[in-house]
Amino acid sequence: MQELKVERCIVSFSDIQGRLRSFVVSGDLIEDLVTSGIDVDGSSVGMTDIERSDIVLKGDESTFRLINLDGRKMGFIMAEIADQPDLDPRYTLRRNLNEIAKVDLKFMVGAEVEFFLLRGDKPADESIYFDSVDEMMSARLMLSEELERMGLKIELMHHEVAPGQNEINFRFDEAVRTADNILIYKMAVKKAARTMGLRATFMPKPFEGVNGSGMHIHMSLFSGSRNLFYHDSDISDYAKWFIGGLLAHAKGLSFFASPTVNSYKRIVPGFEAPVYISWGYKNRSALVRIPSYNGQGSCRIEYRAPDPTSNPYLLFSTVLAAGLDGIRRRIDPGEPRGDNLYHSRDTDTLPGSLEEAMKYAMEDDVLIEAVGRRLFSRYVELKKAEIMESRRHVSEWERRFYIDF
């Protein structure tokens, strides 16, 4: 920072629910931040109780990057809770990755993060999927430029199915860096949208009758330079067992993949969101699918349940734990499904509510251990409060349906 004459740095960290929290420090505090850490209030962001509110945040210097914020050159760094790491989602994922690194394994993840652009409270356009006369093309180009200034490598962008819905894809990476990039992506998209007089939302289902926004994740497991999911003629046994673990833990995983009350308005038949616990090749109606691939570099498993409100650190930790449990126990995922599962009546389904998903997660020791019992308990407290708050409110549908019942 001194060499580049950068005077200030944005320090960011993930709260338990996966929202990026930030503050700005002057350059003369950077050394303290990356060595001993800086005290901040953790209770106001739901990390700690008010009577024990202070937490020590320590910057991860490997995440430092230069950014351009409104024409001003600044630093940016991700931080973790140094004095209570068992409450930190990012540390939790690093802990899980460090465990598999001991046996020379590396977890690689890519994410497709969908969002809506709004004018006021309505979709900003009426374009369709892959529209060639797309009203939001120039907006996505500006958003992509902002993301690139934040250090993300943009690979593909397009209009999604619903009016106002968009997708900008960035390059896959090792799991912690991808999780960092998801939070940075959401922050940058919201900020850039405001400068264009628009509003970006990552709400899973903001509008009835159209597709909701997902965050499909693509995963591969490497040993050295070898992709363990790849085999010459088909996906490997490791891949099938990993899928078996995802299916076996699917109901509990929903608590982390679909973590809001609104998430379950997205997971209904007919809108390209997964409902049935199943897997298949290229089958977009399945919960887990194997996309087309060409060689081991692109061989991967796609898990289609997550939405953008999930905490990526907790999501990746639990998905990895479920998949490794499948490998450890050699869980057979069953036969791949090639039919349209939205017409199925004989396949088990994902939970229909956040409360139901929480019940399954609380019975799943594999997922609880992946998150850590203290962090899991805190996460449950926050979600119980969210469920109770949602019950207090009367929706427009309830008024329409019941007022003259």
UniProtKB/TrEMBL annotation:
Where is this gene product found?
Answer: Cytoplasm
> Which branch of life, at top level?
Archaea
**By what name is this protein known?**
Glutamate--ammonia ligase
Q: Does the keyword Cytoplasm apply?
A: yes
Q: Per UniProt, what is one Pfam family of this protein?
A: Gln-synt_N
Give the GS catalytic domain ranges: 89-405
Gene Ontology terms: biological process: glutamine biosynthetic process
> What PROSITE patterns would the database entry show?
GLNA_ATP, GS_CATALYTIC
Establish whether keyword Cytoplasm is in the entry. Answer: yes
* Any one GO molecular function term: glutamine synthetase activity
Tell me what organism the protein belongs to.
Answer: Candidatus Methanodesulfokora washburnensis
Gene3D superfamilies cross-referenced by the UniProt entry: Glutamine synthetase, N-terminal domain, Glutamine synthetase/guanido kinase, catalytic domain
Q: Name one GO cellular component term.
A: cytoplasm
According to its UniProt record, which protein family does this protein belong to? Answer: Belongs to the glutamine synthetase family.
Keywords of the record: Cytoplasm
